[in-house]
Design goal:
The structure holds 2 protein chains of 2 kinds.
Chain A (H helix, E strand, L loop, with lengths): L18 H29 L20 H9 L2 H32 L5 H10 L5 H14 L6 H5 L6 H11 L4 H9 L4 H9 L4 H17 L2 H6 L8 H11 L4 H33 L3
Helix pairs in contact in A: 1-13, 2-13, 3-7, 3-10, 7-10, 8-9, 10-13, 12-13
Chain B lengths: L2 H7 L15 H36 L2 E2 L7 E2 L3 H8 L1 H32 L6 H9 L6 H11 L6 H8 L11 H29 L3 H9 L4 H12 L1 H17 L2 H6 L11 H10 L4 H28 L5
Antiparallel strand pairs in B: 1-2
Helix pairs in contact in B: 2-14, 3-14, 4-8, 4-11, 4-13, 8-11, 11-14, 13-14
Chain lengths: 286, 315
């Protein structure tokens, strides 16, 4: 049995690394370090004693860890409420969007019906519309519906993600028609075929769609900015923007709360990384 | 193609309906109606929150309206005003500068990272994750951390410049440096995204091509030039289209990072539209600018598509 070495965690290369590999590797490490720096710097700023930010001295690592900074930032604004709102919106949006986009993408992939291609093209072309163009009529509409400052006001207008439909359609094209036909021969209704035959085969795309919808809604800024006008209805990004507006020199609090706000996404990313990368790779979308 | 032909093609002829044989109106029309029922939730949402708003914006662009009272028809006045509006042209210019500064650079750096990662290296997965990580960070948090890093007095970049004996730069409070700071920040979010799309593209290139090139003694650069780059053309095109749309839509990052300032120096068109609508309450004018921006994006996308077709690299 081979003895363990401190480098066991490194993948065992079958061939030796040549000079070009070593140079590439060093370049990549430097590049990754630069890209990681802002996240590290958020952490360092968040845990530093406040006066250490402005005393002119500066070091790249904190001499002292002030965990109490987080509590201070958290209490400046009703962040508890913001997190409840953000989670509620993201979770309801995921359920609604994933369900209707699966059904819609499946239909575009597996049914032939008059107008299919033109409707699909129209749906996809909405991706080019800048939201600022349609924001005013959308706002008037949710005002009429009484949805300003409500979860639905944020969720409904964005529930039909065109990216999602596209992604599901691409995936469903690969499901064999024979399975669907077999269901029909057994006398299953059209919805039962979707629910009992197609969905169980679609876990990969469901995972990708869930993760992306969660990310889109969790990170959303401009539409919630319009639809949510009262502070107690704010989502986390709106809260962060408000924090910067009201305490613009309190960088420890701002960085601390910014860091906390990416934790849910970070957890999702760490556990479902493969789906993120698959989702982007398959359809080239964010 | 007639309806009956279509039904037969789908295998749903009366003879093979099996044990679930149903009669009546629904049974006869089910296959025709089901697709429309299945897409109806999406269609209703699109109609209400996309189609209606865009038509409304088009209608409003020929009117004057401040949200109160009845919209007054004013013909092409909003469009004529746009032509003479210095701020419109400035903000459009900023959008173009931002797009030109972000799109080619993020695509090139994404490709470079993907090329470097597309081989067996120690900790390859970890490096890929770290480069991709910024993609999941929201525009608001990105803007906040960038505003702090680029801070004129206490930001880490200026501290490093001072430590190296150089003059600090007024990143965010000088009109010259604010836009470059925003562009650099945008690269942070975009590179990982482009890299992942390119990695998928690279994996689709059969390794036999490179083996053959090696036998012929082709250098690394020539392999890239004659194999990798042409075969990645569809990926590059996709990234170009998506990145241009992203760049034309950019809002959160600039709104939180500089608020469009100092002065007007980083206000892009979408922010000018947003402010015309929600701060100045000029719904007609904001709508007219919105329609122009939308048409601009459509024309750009169609143009890119046509160019890529002409290059013989159909996508």
């Amino acid at each position: 049995m081979a003895r363990s070495t401190p480098f066991d965690w490194l993948p065992k290369s079958r061939r030796k690394m040549n000079t070009r590999d070593v140079v590439s590797w060093l370049l990549l490490v430097a590049f990754a370090a630069v890209l990681f720096f802002p996240i590290y710097w958020m952490f360092v700023t968040a845990v530093r004693p406040k006066d250490a930010l402005f005393n002119g001295e500066f070091d790249l690592w904190p001499s002292q860890l002030m965990w109490s900074n987080f509590a201070e930032g958290w209490n400046r604004l009703p962040f508890g409420q913001f997190y409840i709102n953000s989670f509620a919106i993201a979770i309801i949006a995921v359920i609604v969007t994933v369900f209707i986009n699966l059904l819609c993408g499946y239909t575009f992939a597996k049914y032939k019906f008059p107008g299919r291609n033109i409707i699909f093209l129209l749906l996809i072309s909405t991706l080019m519309i800048p939201i600022q163009v349609i924001m005013v009529p959308e706002f008037l509409l949710i005002t009429k519906l009484g949805w300003v400052n409500t979860y639905w006001g944020v969720i409904a207008p964005r529930a039909a993600e065109a990216f999602g439909i596209f992604m599901v359609r691409q995936f469903m094209l690969a499901i064999p028609d024979e399975l669907i036909e077999a269901g029909r021969l057994d006398g299953a209704g059209e919805f039962a075929i979707f629910w009992k035959i197609v969905l169980p085969l679609s876990w990969p795309v469901i995972a990708v769609l869930t993760i992306f919808t969660f990310m889109w809604r969790w990170n959303d800024f401009v539409w919630p900015l319009v639809a949510l006008q009262q502070q107690d209805a704010f989502t986390v990004p709106l809260g962060l923007n408000l924090l910067k507006g009201q305490y613009y020199t309190e960088w420890t609090s701002i960085m601390g709360m910014g860091l906390v706000s990416i934790i849910p996404m970070l957890i999702v990313f760490i556990f479902f990384q493969r789906y993120f990368i698959q989702g982007i790779a398959n359809t080239g979308l964010k | 193609m007639t309806t009956s032909q279509r039904l037969r093609e789908d295998g749903n002829t009366p003879g093979n309906r099996g044990k679930g044989h149903k009669t009546g109106w629904w049974a006869r029309n089910e296959r025709l109606l089901v697709p429309y029922i299945f897409i109806s939730p999406n269609i209703i949402i699109f109609a209400a929150f996309m189609l209606f708003p865009i038509l409304f914006a088009f209608y409003m662009s020929f009117h004057e309206w401040s949200l109160i009272g009845v919209p007054q028809f004013n013909g092409l006045d909003n469009y004529v005003r746009m032509v003479h509006d210095e701020l419109f042209w400035q903000s459009l210019g900023h959008t173009v500068v931002f797009t030109a500064g972000t799109v080619p650079t993020s695509i090139a750096l994404g490709l470079a990272a993907a090329m470097l990662l597309n081989r067996e290296l120690p900790a390859r997965g970890l490096l890929r994750s770290v480069i991709f990580l910024p993609v999941i960070v929201s525009g608001v948090v990105t803007a906040l951390v960038a505003a702090w890093i680029f801070n004129d007095n206490y930001g880490v970049i200026n501290s490093l410049l001072k430590a190296a004996g150089l003059e600090p730069i007024l990143w965010l409070s000088s009109p010259t440096w604010a836009m470059p700071s925003i562009i650099i920040t945008t690269l942070w979010i975009r590179i990982g995204f482009c890299m992942v799309v390119y990695l998928a593209g690279l994996q689709g290139i059969p390794s036999e091509y490179y083996d053959a090139a090696q036998v012929d003694g082709a250098s690394g650069w020539r392999q890239f030039r004659h194999i990798t780059w042409p075969l990645l053309a569809p990926t590059t095109f996709l990234l170009l289209v998506i990145n241009v749309i992203f760049s034309f839509h950019v809002f959160d990052l600039i709104y939180v990072m500089t608020g469009g300032g100092p002065g007007f120096s980083t206000t892009v068109l979408v922010q000018y539209i947003y402010e015309s609508a929600f701060a100045s309450r000029e719904m007609g004018y904001a709508s007219a600018m919105g329609i122009v921006l939308y048409l601009l994006i459509v024309v750009l996308t169609v143009f890119q598509w046509r160019v890529s077709r002409q290059g013989g690299e159909g996508v």
